[in-house]
Design goal:
Layout lengths: L1 H5 L2 H19 L3 H38 L9 H7 L2 E11 L2 E4 L4 E4 L2 E2 L11 H12 L3 E5 L11 E6 L9 H7 L1 H7 L4 E2 L9 H13 L29 E2 L4 E2 L23 H7 L4 E2 L16 E2 L3
Parallel strand pairs: 3-6
Antiparallel strand pairs: 1-2, 1-5, 2-3, 4-7, 5-6, 8-9, 10-11
Helix pairs in contact: 6-7, 7-8
Length: 309
């Protein structure tokens, strides 16, 4: 004991060794900690593999669905579609009457296949209503013009179908009903179908729509089965261009431009003019069938009204 006490360095060395041994023991993991770590690692690996498997399965399912779906074709732009249908975009500068407009560039356009009651040089029942309706819908608006066969009529007016919007299929009835203004006039009783070959592309639709409007007594049809102006559904060959219409109980008649009613001039001596120019000097707006000045050769469009403007 005296030897150790005399030499304290041994005590220091022994203390250091003891401390190192105790520290190593405290840092060594227990078997329990080791087992827990292994369990956590295995669980994590299983979770990662499951997630990876689900992702691969999802991608595979999406690929299979995409293979089965038809490849969508790129949609045509409105301009391309309009061009393919022969449509021309214009601005309506002025409305002349129910079935005639003037574009902002000065062209007078007559609607194909329909006829509204007159409201300009001659006045027919429901003509003003038809004219006001067209004004409310078209004046100042942009519309699409479509030619059937004829480009112009004998008065130099352009003959056109009026579309409010570009149809995807111009022969689809639903689109004709919702986007074509010619059809709109007939459906709402502002016009009768009036077919003049060769412009007959939509004539069957217009006749169908007119029957619907007549059955519902819409607009001009509320005045009788023949409406208030000439058209394809006329029950007789009697001219209605003079403004005559049947109410079922009485008959009314508009005045002719000469101030002479056609029915009162029947049996009087006929008035013969060499041509429409000469006739219009006396009757500026033409004359209806039954009038002393009426001649069939001057009724070129066979509408029972000669030399009309």
């Amino acid at each position: 004991m005296k030897r150790f006490s005399r030499n304290p360095s041994w005590l220091i060395v022994i203390s250091l060794i003891t401390s190192l041994l105790l520290g190593a023991c405290s840092n060594e993991p227990t078997s329990k900690d080791t087992n827990n770590t292994k369990v956590d690692t295995v669980a994590k690996e299983k979770t990662e593999k499951k997630a990876e498997s689900e992702e691969q399965s999802s991608v595979q399912t999406a690929d299979e669905e995409n293979k089965n779906e038809p490849v969508a074709e790129p949609k045509q732009s409105q301009e391309e579609l309009a061009k393919s249908l022969g449509l021309e975009l214009v601005t309506v500068g002025r409305v002349v009457d129910g079935d005639t407009i003037v574009t902002s560039d000065g062209r007078k356009v007559r609607f194909v296949g329909v006829n509204t009651p007159e409201s300009t040089t001659r006045h027919e029942v429901y003509g003003k209503e038809a004219s006001n309706y067209t004004k409310s819908k078209l004046e100042g608006k942009q519309v699409w013009l479509q030619k059937d066969v004829s480009s112009t009529d004998r008065y130099g007016r352009y003959l056109r179908i009026i579309w409010m919007g570009v149809p995807t299929n111009d022969m689809d009835e639903a689109e004709i009903r919702s986007k074509m203004f010619n059809a709109d006039l007939v459906l709402n009783g502002y016009a009768e179908p009036s077919t003049y070959p060769p412009d007959v592309k939509y004539s069957e639709f217009f006749v169908k729509f007119a029957r619907e409007a007549r059955e519902a007594n819409k607009g001009l049809w509320s005045y009788g089965a023949d409406g208030t102006t000439k058209g394809d559904l006329d029950g007789s060959s009697t001219s209605k261009s003079s403004g005559s219409y049947s109410t079922g109980s009485s008959t009314s008649s508009g005045s002719s431009s000469s101030g002479t009613d056609a029915s009162t001039s029947a049996g009087t001596k006929s008035e013969v003019f060499q041509n429409c120019t000469e006739l219009r000097k006396v009757y500026p707006n033409g004359v209806p069938a039954g009038h002393p000045a009426y001649q069939a050769k001057m009724d070129r469009d066979k509408d029972n009204y000669a030399c009309e403007q």
